[in-house]
């Protein structure tokens, strides 16, 4: 905080609270370099959880979480004074609290927190590792029931059930199971009611994107399968996506620019005249949130570092026909990336 | 917008995009009273989805969703001029876009959108009704496997699987299954790894809070059960919570202050010396988000209106012993509330 010229930090984001005090809100943590004790404001709703789980060095103050809440927090900040950074806040709350603070400057400070959260310690890597194991088990359970006739929602039911059975505490995000031309909608292909019960058919691509949460930490894995014999265009595109992923991973190591592996993947796809169909970035950080910094995107100017955890997920999406994405969660080490999700992707044909 | 003195509205919130254009982002919708056409900015990632699902009257502009995105949107706003409201934005983006707009004022406008989203039309009520049916089926499937020996996570697996099997498109929120003293942590009782596999035992309270999403709309229902014979303190507290709920619902009707049903419930619990153990508000709106305005809380000054959908969920939580909450999703009608979740709560004892 001193390095950034900040006297106080007001933290209300769910994941940030989890990171710093081990409870996931609603609450507000006020840290100050000008005081010896730090304060955790909690609504009556969360008092027991705070008393049970929050670290001892925090003073827990119970206060109702209504209009009054912002006033209480602002009074507390005002009485300390100085420059106060905040992690995240609704625009209304930000303007309201700023208005209450005559002599204290409020400024966005999420970037400072990401500098910490981007680098995972041993405990965090352990949790992500376990979340990846759960994801692998869920992918396997889906793989085992992929046959013509089963519907997307039946596959989803199997996946979510397996995530909980395997010790996941929740889903990392809503599981994506898309088949046929809907695989060409890269993310969250919105399901209309009439699409939900469409059964898989011979000749369908099937894209499954899933993740689990363990101890608050996420995993993220995508596999694309094909029911029956794919034509040469699909087969060669699949091989190109895998080649792009493997090539990019050669460059996922400390000190490399985050944009470079993305460029390598894009270049590899260009060799197959497919780069125009890869219309998202190569990957994103994973931790207490499913999408975190850093981004591996063409415009990213950040550098990779050891102990970052991120996805590598090249894809190719041909409108009205099919899409292919292969994604793993990786740990950046001095020796290159370690794949934390391990489900096989060399065999994707279901016959 | 004219009524609120606003010329442009910039909409980037996931649920707001869903509400106005039927896609769930990432995207930015720019509506202006000063122009004939409205613009939907989408990253390449979402272009196919936008073309497939967005209404015809929108001009779809594809632009990368990186640092450049805010610049493109700001240039577009700047070229129109006037006062621009935004629904939600990170503080960093808000400051960045504000900085780019010399002559145009940017202001928070989520309150204006809530005036619309709070009142559900027939289509929305239909979707919520179906989401409530899915929730009821999931609650029934959990109820049917409640016996000593089953673990919280096994119950969760059954619930999530049933939600997908019954046509839910996703979970409304992470399912809460808490047993024993953990039921006394009102919301999201954080599960440590070692707590996840604890089996239900005779003498345990079990709290299940779940919801489903259908067509983007949520449902929310909680039931509390007891394994074996409850002592008189638990039994009378359960009856008090039910009485509080029934009493409060008498006043959930148009023109009533949102704080009044909360006061009625609190007062009823006070008759049993339990009001101090009810440490959250009575209910919240439900729609495209799981928690929406209005709040039924002691400090809420809003009025209820026909076609609002909200929860009624009194609870009592005795630290280190047990908690009880009974919650339904209700539609406010001229004749009072209609319960959209219908799972029985008069019989809660599992023997």
Spatial strand sequence of the major β-sheet of chain A:
4-3-2-1-5-6
Number of DSSP E strands of chain A: 20
Beta-strand percent range of chain A: 15-25%
Low-confidence stretches of chain A: none
Mean residue pLDDT of chain A? 92
The computed structural class of chain A is: alpha+beta
Structure characterization notes:
The structure is a homodimer of 351-residue chains. In chain A, 33% of the residues lie in helices and 24% in strands. Chain A has two domains: 8-117, Creatine Amidinohydrolase, Chain A, domain 1, CATH 3.40.350.10; 122-350, Creatinase/methionine aminopeptidase superfamily (Creatine Amidinohydrolase, Alpha-Beta Complex), CATH 3.90.230. The first copy, chain A, has helices at residues 14-21, 44-53, 67-80, 91-100, 110-117, 122-143, 152-165, 232-249, 259-271; strands at 8-11, 28-32, 38-42, 58-62, 83-86, 105-108, 170-171, 176-179, 205-210, 212-214, 217-218, 221-227, 283-285, 292-296, 309-312, 315-318, 322-325, 328-333, 336-339, 349-350. In chain A, the strands form six sheets. In chain A, strands 4-3-2-1-5-6 form a six-stranded mixed beta sheet. In chain A, strands 8-9-12-20 form a four-stranded mixed beta sheet, covered by helices on one side. The radius of gyration of chain A is 23 Å and the shape is elongated. In chain A, helix 8 runs antiparallel to helix 9. With 351 residues, the first copy, chain A, is of the alpha+beta class. In chain A, a hairpin with a 5-residue loop joins strand 2 (28-32) and strand 3. The first copy, chain A, has nine helices and 20 strands. The interface between A and B is large, with 65 and 65 residues.
């Amino acid at each position: 905080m001193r390095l950034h010229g900040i006297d106080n930090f007001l933290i209300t984001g769910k994941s940030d609270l989890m990171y710093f005090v081990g409870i996931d809100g609603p609450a507000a943590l006020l840290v100050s370099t000008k005081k010896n004790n730090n304060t955790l404001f909690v609504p009556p709703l969360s008092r027991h959880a705070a008393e049970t789980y929050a670290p001892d060095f925090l003073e827990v103050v119970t206060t109702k979480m209504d209009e009054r809440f912002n006033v209480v927090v602002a009074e507390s900040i005002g009485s300390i004074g100085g420059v106060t950074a905040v992690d995240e806040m609704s625009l209304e709350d930000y303007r309201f609290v700023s208005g209450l603070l005559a002599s204290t400057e409020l400024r966005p400070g999420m970037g400072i927190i990401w500098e910490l959260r981007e680098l995972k310690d041993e405990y965090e890597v352990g949790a992500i590792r376990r979340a990846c194991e759960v994801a692998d088990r869920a992918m396997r359970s889906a793989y085992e029931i992929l046959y013509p006739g089963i519907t997307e929602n039946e596959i989803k039911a199997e996946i979510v059930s397996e995530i909980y059975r395997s010790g996941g505490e929740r889903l990392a995000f809503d599981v994506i199971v898309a088949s046929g031309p809907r695989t060409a909608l890269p993310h969250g292909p919105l399901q209309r009611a009439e699409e939900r019960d469409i059964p898989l058919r011979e000749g369908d691509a099937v894209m499954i994107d899933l993740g689990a949460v363990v101890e608050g930490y996420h995993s993220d894995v995508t596999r694309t399968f094909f029911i029956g014999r794919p034509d040469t265009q699909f087969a060669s595109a699949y091989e190109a996506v895998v080649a792009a992923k493997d090539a990019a991973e050669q460059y996922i190591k400390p000190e490399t620019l985050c944009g470079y592996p993305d460029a390598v993947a894009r270049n590899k796809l260009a060799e197959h005249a497919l780069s125009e169909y890869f219309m998202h970035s190569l990957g994103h950080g994973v931790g207490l949130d499913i999408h975190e910094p850093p981004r591996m995107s063409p415009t990213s100017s950040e550098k990779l570092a050891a102990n970052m955890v991120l996805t590598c997920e090249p894809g190719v999406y041909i409108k009205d026909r099919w899409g292919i994405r292969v994604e793993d969660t990786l740990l950046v080490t001095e020796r290159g990336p370690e794949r934390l999700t391990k489900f096989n992707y060399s065999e994707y044909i279901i016959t």
